[in-house]
UniProtKB/TrEMBL annotation:
It comes from Perkinsus olseni (Perkinsus atlanticus). GO terms for molecular function: transferase activity. The keyword Transmembrane applies. One of its GO terms (biological process) is lipid biosynthetic process. Belongs to the CDP-alcohol phosphatidyltransferase class-I family. Keywords: Membrane, Transferase, Transmembrane, Transmembrane helix. This is Phosphotransferase 1. Its main location: membrane. The chain crosses the membrane at residues 12-34, 54-73, 93-115, 136-156, 168-187, 199-217, 229-250.
Length: 281
């Protein structure tokens, strides 16, 4: 939702700029969860998205609300010193925000690299699982590849699906990101292993990639499957996969802790009807 509001503020439209706004925030969150999984602890950098990033965005919203016509303000061209050329203010803001996200991501990458290359006996937290540096980067690679494929798809889509369904396109990519981060967090909490190759969200990415490539290679530049229809299908599949994962996690937690999640125990229902306070065992 923050991506939609920021893109609407800067009037980015349906294209790579809106997608960059999405990945600017999601990449920081992904690598933070990835860092937490491999190091066993979560250490926010001094400059981070949840604090300074939100503060900067809130300040931009506040300043824009004080303007008579904020859309024209952000589309005024400015000439940058030492660079030359004229750039719109909204593009300058996007570059600055994206550039500020890079050090945060690199901090997480360096943290995992430093932890993985430290001898086990010198680590602060003893880990029962063997995770080397190769395993760490192999689990981050699918997300990085997904970012590249998403940008290529939005840019070179034969039927311009992002322009026809901009919200659904962002929602679909966001669901895939949410699924990946949730799986990392579940693996961290449950002390399990990561296996991105088994995630069902890879299937929609594979289908869209093949359909897009075949469309670009065809003489009439038409893909075998109508892209808007395919987008609806893969979005539904991704959403169902995400819901299935959430339900499975809740069920497993309920069984492990012996706590009812989907129903209210009869003893508690009777206590509520009678108005009596039920003692906790």
């Amino acid at each position: 939702m923050s991506t939609f509001s920021a893109a609407a503020l800067f009037q980015y439209g349906a294209g790579l700029r809106t997608l960059t706004m999405l990945f600017m925030a999601s990449s920081q969150f992904f690598f933070a969860a990835w860092d937490e999984y491999y190091r066993g602890e979560f250490i926010l950098p001094y400059v981070n998205g949840p604090n300074e990033g939100v503060l900067i965005l809130a300040a931009i919203y506040l300043l824009s609300s004080l303007m008579g016509d904020y859309t024209s303000f952000w589309h005024v061209k400015e000439t940058l010193p030492f660079i030359g050329g004229s750039f719109q203010r909204c593009d300058i803001a996007l570059v600055l925000c994206s550039t500020s996200a890079i050090p945060v991501i690199l901090t997480h990458v360096y943290g995992v690299y430093s932890y993985s290359t430290t001898p086990r006996e010198q680590r602060k937290r003893m880990d029962t699982r063997t995770r080397d540096l190769h395993h760490a980067f192999s689990t981050a690679t699918p997300y990085c590849v997904g970012v590249i494929l998403a940008c290529l798809w939005v840019r070179f889509s034969p039927e311009g699906v992002a322009a026809q369904h901009p919200r659904l396109t962002i929602w679909f990519i966001g669901i895939l990101f949410s699924y990946a981060v949730a799986m990392i967090q579940v693996a961290h909490v449950c002390d399990g292993d990561l296996a991105p190759c088994r995630w069902p969200c890879i299937l929609p990415v594979f289908i869209i990639s093949c359909n897009c490539v075949l469309g670009l290679l065809s003489p009439d530049n038409q893909p075998p499957i109508h892209e808007p229809l395919l987008l609806v299908f893969v979005s539904t599949f991704a959403l169902l996969s995400w819901l299935t994962m959430v339900i499975a996690v809740l069920r497993d937690i309920s069984e492990a802790l012996c706590l009812p999640v989907w129903t209210v125990p009869l003893k508690i229902q009777a206590s509520c009807r009678s108005g009596k306070i039920l003692a906790i065992d």
